[in-house]
Amino acid sequence: MVIRVAGIADKMAKNQKQIAISEFFEKNKHFLGFDSLQRSIITAVKEAVDNSLDACEEARILPDIKVKITKIDSKKDILELQTEDNGPGIPQKSIEKVFGQLLFGSRFHAIRQSRGQQGIGITGVVMYSQLTTGKPTHVLSKVANDPTAVSVNIGLDTRKNKAVKSEQTRIIWENDDLTMKEHGLRVTTRMKAKYQRGRQSVFQYLRMTSIVNPHAEITFTDPDGETYHWPRVTERLPSKVDAIKPHPHGIELGQLQRMCRESSDSRMTVFLRQNFSGVSMRAAKELCEAAELEITMKPKSLKPDDVRALLEAFQGEREVNGKAIKLLSPPTNCLSPIEEMLIKKGLSKTIDSKFVATMTRAPTVSHGNPFQVEVGLIFGEGMVADKHVEVLRFANRVPLMYQQGGCLLTKAIESVDWRQYGLEQAGGKGVPKGPAAILVHLASTNVQFTSEAKEALSDNEFVFEETRRAMLEMGRGLRKHLEKKKKMAKTREKFELINDILPAIAEKSASILERPIPDLAGSITKIMSAVICNESTTWNKETKQVDVSITLFNYTSRARSYSLLVNWPEKSGGEMVGNERGGRKEAMGIWGWKIETLEPGEKAVVEYSLSNLEKGDWTETEVFFRGSQDVIGATKLDEKMLVEIRKQEEILNQSDVPSGDNGETSENNEDGVAYEPGVVEGDSGQTTLFGGEN
Amino acid sequence: MVIRVAGIADKMAKNQKQIAISEFFEKNKHFLGFDSLQRSIITAVKEAVDNSLDACEEARILPDIKVKITKIDSKKDILELQTEDNGPGIPQKSIEKVFGQLLFGSRFHAIRQSRGQQGIGITGVVMYSQLTTGKPTHVLSKVANDPTAVSVNIGLDTRKNKAVKSEQTRIIWENDDLTMKEHGLRVTTRMKAKYQRGRQSVFQYLRMTSIVNPHAEITFTDPDGETYHWPRVTERLPSKVDAIKPHPHGIELGQLQRMCRESSDSRMTVFLRQNFSGVSMRAAKELCEAAELEITMKPKSLKPDDVRALLEAFQGEREVNGKAIKLLSPPTNCLSPIEEMLIKKGLSKTIDSKFVATMTRAPTVSHGNPFQVEVGLIFGEGMVADKHVEVLRFANRVPLMYQQGGCLLTKAIESVDWRQYGLEQAGGKGVPKGPAAILVHLASTNVQFTSEAKEALSDNEFVFEETRRAMLEMGRGLRKHLEKKKKMAKTREKFELINDILPAIAEKSASILERPIPDLAGSITKIMSAVICNESTTWNKETKQVDVSITLFNYTSRARSYSLLVNWPEKSGGEMVGNERGGRKEAMGIWGWKIETLEPGEKAVVEYSLSNLEKGDWTETEVFFRGSQDVIGATKLDEKMLVEIRKQEEILNQSDVPSGDNGETSENNEDGVAYEPGVVEGDSGQTTLFGGEN
Fold it and tell me: Structure pTM?
């Protein structure tokens, strides 16, 4: 027995060998999203389009992307996919590695927001094509300075994870209009796949991509030859993202050991300031002091215990003068949120609805990685009411279409008790029901998916909490909207009674009795006994402006005096025109008017228009009032809120977070705000400062 | 602009570089199951225990596994994990590769059922330990012939995917009783992790592992020093699995191209017969004929079109004499199901309940990969009734504890309308509610997980269909059980009325009237007017046998004559003893008795015991009858069913599938059954032949 067992141990050891990463992913192609014929074509489109969008963004080019799918053999389910962009192209010598070698890429070590990260995606497509059709993938690439484009076939030697190149030539690449293409990339590949329509389809993927990439022009030709076109809705490129250094709060011990070992820096302070973000000169010195290290030490010479002490100082477990060392937050110019107005634009383009709320939360940090959550909610009668609301999930501007149930973003939605916000929800848990759609976008330097197929986010308490908070805030906005609608509906009933039915009765009675028609004003104020505000916000096709009209009726028996205030899209670049009543700016995005004293039965009208907007940008105006008597249809102004808005506005003006154009490197931004490690920052959403809707 | 874009293309290309697989998984450690501190320790235990079970199974050793978790630093969440087995050990020179190199293993290319496949798991643990604590993992390994064990620390150079070895020595390894350990492996590692209790815990993982590995002895010491012990319940090792060749139906074009290119075979027939399973000499010739290839051709010399033609012949798209070529099913001795009796044993050990149904479906094939589904269902009053039933998922004898919602096995359960089988289920969809637990085990040569963390199975229509069918069959068993219980409850009420209340009334009236007590037999038969069967199956602690007693009452006014039949665990090795009435075997697992004619009011009793079983193995006996009048509490025998059982029994005796000891290699088993490519085979479950329960 013992001898037999010994033989087996040897035999087992002999059978062991190294597996190439390409063999691994060929066998586990479902990890990459190639688990069914229906899904494979979506995955291929996704990888190609993500690459195009990333390359254009990096090269600051407004992307123009064409996707075409052709049926080659219906019986054997062979499709041809061709994607073309106007990106920077790929230099000849790099093509084979980009397309024919797994885990080859530029973004793996860079800490910044990008769609692709691992250098797997497009090579996975080439591999799947080769596996299922035996054919290589054709690449046509032109970079701006070359007179010709390179045309080459790329296959993959999976045993070695190396590209196999064939039929390489250089050709003139002409555009449809026969001018020479300046730069761009075209990828043509055949694969075993099935084209389908519906909720999980190439069409839907591209449609969702266009929502969160409003700067992209996308054209799609389906296997029936039908062409769909999603035009560019903004000429503004997403803000440029800069790669940042890792933040000390996100470092693991093993990683720090390696960084020290590989460092050639001459002293600790240089090492700390040049390899990490958020470390000022003062902080670098304090870190050394706390870790009991000389600032002149070479990082390379640190012993295991020294590294451990340094990590403890990073994590606030070692103090200087009884205080943990304050580190700055990592800079957030590595993130590129979509921003609320563009989300709204994208959503409105897709679904026509009255109520659209969006919000972009302030950037925050999880384990040293900056991230930012954006959400949108559409509610409207046009949508199906008795089904679960549609959930649109995105990560770094890429739509997530599978595994909704297993995704962190869905779990955050499910954790909210939507019943209190006016949606149906069994037991106060799960995806709510109602005529609504919810959009969630996570922008992060390190999106953690549950698998390489990149379809669902894995659990992370910080991202969960941020998303949940955003949902709660949007929910409050929805509730307000629904309450207001209900209140207005009641008032409208009363209104009709007074303005139509009462006078009709008076007229009729008068004519029967052959008496003059009585003056009803007194009776009406008695019945209503309220001040009523009516607001209308409509898109004017001719002037291409949003016309806003607010009427204030005094249906009480006493004279009344008010100030009216409204929210308006100042931050998004809207302009207020035709505002004949004047008034004044009360805070960023808040305008106010003093209204003359209204006698019983009198009314006042405020009118203005908003220019520099597009249809759907602004669909509802919230009206606030200052005054003693309640106004139906408006909200009493909370002065504290106004103060809060003014304060936040100041902070925003200082930190200048969303622009990302201040050119600062991470080492310099010492005037940032210090934050506690691992603590989710407070309710500092930038946009829903004034109620949840706008 | 053009020049700028050109510069960017070059700059982007320059930043690209190759990423090591170890860097990839270090950054994406959540792909490997290290996404939270709570989960990390479970993942580590899982990888170590899976390896131990696999190694013992391959070396044909009954595993004895010890797991110990110790708290090293509660504040910093540092745990130490030590696992020890009595497996074959790992030879000194292999240790560093097994523990310190990703994608190094023996099972990647082997087509057979095993827990580990990719050569990632345990190296992932070493990597995570190093990353979070900076410490290497200690390995102590002894193979049978060496006088000493090797003791060595293993770390990982993630930049190169190479092991870093330190402090290697050889020592005497003593067991607790101070005898020398003959062979085995001990792994000790420290990591950042949190120990927790509950549904997702190390305890639960080991408990579930013991259910599906009844041949393993597992001991667990938790951080509080408490020790749990799951004893071995069978000395029978899982049947030995042999690696098989790929089946032609599961081959992709790219794979076939590579096989041809790398082949050194001298002729096509040799190539086809030696590299594929299911290809007989005749089939090899026919495949060449269909693909228009000479059988003397060298595979290496095949042109792309030749390979394509061969694949078409594989897939039945090319015919010979108007017929597709018949290929044999792949052999199924590459699978090792748990088998129903052991599942039942495992389930009963955990949950004490009256009704336990299990079934092992016949092996079948998806894309050339053999697989087999086994299911179990427990139903009982002791369990929580108003919650979702507990779902226990397993793949190749490994418990799956996360991502239940995203798993194919769960989806198959959810697709069944359980309301018709007596469980609550909102809308006839989703996981049902009720006092029940459902177990599903997939045994497969190629388990496709949604990610490398191996927690959920990705979609596969064949596996889905098999699982669904197994559920439907079990559901029918459950319904029968519940109907029977309901019927018996009613009868029992009547019984009480007749046997207790009627005689009491008669006695009372007689005493009041001072008359003799009347004979009630006639009245009782009139009221009941039925033949009633009472069955009891109970575990006899003293004799360690199952005692079965069946009583047949004739409560009708005429004489009745019946045969009674029962099911009993003959296949699982049970023995029938003390059966004084004799009777005869009617089929495998079915015994029958001719009962003497019963006059009105008479009863007959059948009694016997079952030995060679353990508690919980057999908890309910199903009784059938032959005869004209219905019997309450027994089922009328369907003679066609009996014939069917006898027929299947013959087939089973021929194919000898579950034993796996026939020593046939895939090339020889030409007497297998031909099957259609891609078609799920019919309802050929082996065990619930006679009703769904037993």
Answer: 0.74
